[in-house]
């Protein structure tokens, strides 16, 4: 890895040239690249231990089986979710009710898209965020300190879902039939988190936390020099909640007690993590935690991340700390914001920099 100030080249020209190919990182790999271009070099970071021998932590895996049948078990599961959300900001869930066949088909749809000929994918390559479906490499390409070794397709699924002709053919089944099954479960996660906060199960859904849904399909191609770059730099998510379906290759890590902890793939599991907006409205009760994805010589790694957020839509709804959670011992810690204002600020900050949430503290 290299220090940020070691860049001694015309970085912006390199970024423009890369973006103009409209082929993304996978285009570099398909062309046979053997060296990582400098735009992907990450700043050296010695602040956190990466030695597996020093890392004895293990991310919680919560079994949801029986949650709706046994009141005692329901209470125990809610406690596990609360503890994980407060201490980790991340947990995995199994026996959530989504068929394995649905999850497999979602990842297959992602694979079909990225394995298409570059010329077919180019028709979807854009940085126009008003489009219902946006394919590009690095949303913050021109703002971040270093580019990530990944390509992404971003699709706004709610509150205004796209029509079939607004989606690449490879994704049409994924974003229609698959999500009919998938989103029903995701809404239930917010009910469980409402209970974890001591609120009515419908609370977070009632205040609009599930009103918007953006789905990001990531492709992390094999990297010839993974020690020089990252699949995704250190960041926390700007939304209320993220539900991640990852494939079997791994690479996702969460920062816990100054150690990078692997979130290993678990068969049939989904990864749940608290977003910055949920930390804001919970007044720091639930934590949005930094995470990253390692680059690897093996790939491509594929994932589907579902973000609960209205993003850049022009909603007039304003969010601040939930009044029911406040007290003399727990005063307001954040100023109110619309989701759009927060999303705009987050995007301008870019992945790999400081948390956007810190600019909203009182």
Automatic annotation (TrEMBL):
<dbReference type="InterPro" id="IPR044861">
    <property type="entry name" value="IPNS-like_FE2OG_OXY"/>
</dbReference>
<dbReference type="InterPro" id="IPR026992">
    <property type="entry name" value="DIOX_N"/>
</dbReference>
<dbReference type="InterPro" id="IPR027443">
    <property type="entry name" value="IPNS-like_sf"/>
</dbReference>
<comment type="similarity">
    <text>Belongs to the iron/ascorbate-dependent oxidoreductase family.</text>
</comment>
<feature type="domain" description="Fe2OG dioxygenase">
    <location>
        <begin position="211"/>
        <end position="311"/>
    </location>
</feature>
<protein>
    <submittedName>
        <fullName>1-aminocyclopropane-1-carboxylate oxidase homolog</fullName>
    </submittedName>
</protein>
<keyword id="KW-0479">Metal-binding</keyword>
<keyword id="KW-0560">Oxidoreductase</keyword>
<dbReference type="InterPro" id="IPR005123">
    <property type="entry name" value="Oxoglu/Fe-dep_dioxygenase_dom"/>
</dbReference>
<dbReference type="Pfam" id="PF03171">
    <property type="entry name" value="2OG-FeII_Oxy"/>
</dbReference>
<dbReference type="Pfam" id="PF14226">
    <property type="entry name" value="DIOX_N"/>
</dbReference>
<keyword id="KW-0408">Iron</keyword>
<keyword id="KW-0847">Vitamin C</keyword>
